[in-house]
């Protein structure tokens, strides 16, 4: 038994030794694995660091080139403006301004140059390549056929670019301001080798249209839509909104404010502001934010004619050319006109100031082949129910009306009367029920609805397609019930419609062979930059306080 015990002990010792060896090997393997993983993490971290460094270097290089170009363009800007009209001498700073003021009133002798000096300067400009470019054909990167007036608009934009001037493209709605703007970016890409970066800032409802138009007319431009929830925006920031990876950033007014930290990292070639009348108040958050961005050029797009409001005009000019239009007081003083009969003189002066910056053409001027737009006001009486509510409202607030009460209360009276004229069901408890059922009463209790019910079948019969605008979202609800009751197919956009739903509705209405007959739109949400060119009839169910 002793010999056997010794043998067992030896075997046990040997087994224990094997276990220890295996444990050591496992520990070594684990340590090696940890070391490999650690080195791999360090390698990936270094790669990420180098990637960020490379992106930052590319961004710095891009920004430096744009900043240098900005300085070069700035040198010739005032000279160009002074050549356009003597008015800018009133606002220009420094010796050049003073010398121009002294020359005022000397007519053709105002120039200090001799004829030989002027000729020599023109030759220098020719040699330097600063003479104005004029395209006779559209850039080859632009798909589709540009009309003659659109090509003329592109040449105007190119002339502003060459002279370092910002501008306002204010063509009437429907003349292709978006296409002309995209063609400018295409021109810079094709002829100047400038791929960006550019930023388009527009109402949220129009971003889808901008993206579609860029893809349709100039597919060589790499466009990024910067919109979405924080997670989506973070993904775009990391993967798409990177120097060298995009040419055009399309974003909304809200994102331009909310994401200014991200967007201010770039020096922009062009900042293009669609529906630019939104920045006419220089104290608004949007206007202040847009002034923070570094850019070579600013282009404002608006289909809304500028009102003869001097301060709003100064605000726009200050945004376009802050180094010249720096003082609102100087601007207002210069436009002070004595007497009531000199309003025409003010308007003439305004036109002179705007001439180098503003391009506005009307359809009647450029589209000679189009039939004139017909505007018809259809007057309609109120229903019996509307008359009852109207009288009750007036009697209730008669004292306020007769006494010319405070403005807020008077406006409230006016709003209640407008609701009554639109449809009495806008008042709580007016609609018969419960149960609430859609029937003929929805039509017969509103004079406007009676007329609309007669109009739509005739328009449908002749193949027309209709846009119906209203100020009131709840009225759109009533119209929606009516369209379902009559079996008309429709789309709808109001302030609560999400971006994707907007784009889907617009696409569904515009697609070839679409069976959508009516598009319901709230004036605020649908009145800005939405392309619904397949419709030929617009019905304003109720008009805005400001017809523009």
UniProtKB/TrEMBL annotation:
Coiled coil regions in record: none
Highest taxon listed in the record's lineage: Eukaryota
CDD domains on file: DEXHc_SMARCA1_SMARCA5 (cd17997), SF2_C_SNF (cd18793)
Chain segments carrying region Disordered: 1-44, 93-130
Helicase C-terminal domain residues: 451-548
Sequence ranges assigned to domain Helicase ATP-binding in this UniProt record: 158-323
Gene3D superfamilies, alphabetized: P-loop containing nucleotide triphosphate hydrolases (3.40.50.300), Tandem AAA-ATPase domain (3.40.50.10810)
Residues in the signal sequence: none
Pfam family, any one: SNF2-rel_dom
Compositionally biased region (Basic residues): 101-111
GO molecular function: ATP binding; hydrolase activity
Keywords: Hydrolase
Residue ranges, compositional bias (Acidic residues): 1-28, 115-124
Protein name: Uncharacterized protein
Species name: Opuntia streptacantha (Prickly pear cactus)
């Amino acid at each position: 038994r002793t010999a056997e015990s010794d043998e067992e002990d030896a075997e046990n010792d040997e087994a224990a030794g094997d276990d220890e060896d295996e444990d050591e090997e496992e520990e070594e393997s684990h340590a090696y694995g940890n070391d490999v993983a650690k080195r791999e993490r360090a390698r990936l971290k270094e790669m990420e660091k180098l990637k960020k460094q490379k992106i930052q270097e590319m961004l710095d290089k891009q920004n430096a080139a744009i900043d240098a170009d900005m300085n070069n363009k700035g040198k010739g800007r005032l000279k160009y403006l002074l050549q356009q009209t003597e008015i800018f001498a009133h606002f220009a700073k420094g010796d050049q301004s003073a010398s121009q003021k002294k020359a005022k009133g000397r007519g053709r002798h105002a120039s200090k140059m001799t004829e030989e000096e002027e000729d020599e300067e023109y030759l220098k400009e020719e040699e330097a390549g600063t003479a104005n470019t004029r395209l006779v054909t559209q850039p080859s990167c632009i798909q589709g056929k540009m009309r003659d007036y659109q090509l003329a608009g592109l040449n105007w934009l190119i002339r502003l670019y060459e002279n370092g001037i910002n501008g306002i493209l204010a063509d009437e709605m429907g003349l292709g301001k978006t296409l002309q703007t995209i063609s400018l970016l295409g021109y810079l890409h094709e002829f100047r080798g400038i791929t960006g970066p550019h930023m388009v800032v527009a109402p949220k409802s129009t971003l889808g249209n901008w993206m579609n138009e860029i893809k349709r007319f100039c597919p060589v431009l790499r466009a990024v839509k910067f919109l979405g929830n924080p997670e989506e925006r973070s993904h775009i920031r990391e993967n798409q909104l990177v120097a060298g990876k995009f040419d055009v950033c399309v974003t909304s007014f809200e994102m331009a404010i909310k994401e200014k930290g991200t967007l201010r990292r770039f020096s922009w070639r062009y900042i293009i502001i669609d529906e630019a009348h939104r920045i006419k108040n220089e104290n608004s958050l949007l206007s202040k934010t847009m002034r923070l961005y570094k850019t070579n050029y600013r282009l404002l797009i608006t289909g809304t004619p500028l009102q003869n409001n001097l301060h709003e005009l100064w605000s726009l000019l200050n945004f376009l050319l802050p180094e010249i239009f720096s003082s609102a007081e100087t601007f207002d003083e210069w436009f002070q006109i004595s007497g009531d009969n000199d309003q025409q003189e003010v308007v003439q002066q305004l036109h002179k100031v705007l001439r180098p910056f503003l391009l506005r053409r009307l359809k009647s001027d450029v589209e000679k082949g189009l039939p004139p737009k017909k505007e018809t006001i259809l007057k309609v009486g109120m229903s019996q129910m509307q008359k009852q509510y109207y009288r009750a409202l007036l009697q209730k607030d008669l004292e306020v009306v007769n006494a010319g009460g405070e403005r807020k209360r008077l406006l409230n009276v006016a709003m209640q009367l407008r609701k009554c004229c639109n449809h009495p069901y806008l008042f709580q408890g007016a609609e018969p029920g419960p149960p609430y059922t859609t029937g003929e009463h929805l039509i017969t209790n509103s004079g406007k609805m009676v007329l609309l019910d007669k109009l739509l079948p005739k328009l449908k019969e002749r193949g027309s397609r209709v846009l119906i605008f209203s100020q009131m979202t709840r009225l759109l609800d009533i119209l929606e019930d009516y369209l379902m009751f009559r079996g008309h197919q429709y789309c709808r956009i109001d302030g609560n419609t999400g971006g994707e739903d907007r784009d889907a509705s617009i696409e569904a209405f515009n697609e070839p062979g679409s069976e959508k007959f009516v598009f319901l739109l709230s004036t605020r949400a649908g009145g800005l930059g939405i392309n619904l060119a397949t419709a030929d009839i617009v019905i304003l169910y109720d008009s805005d306080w400001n017809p523009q």
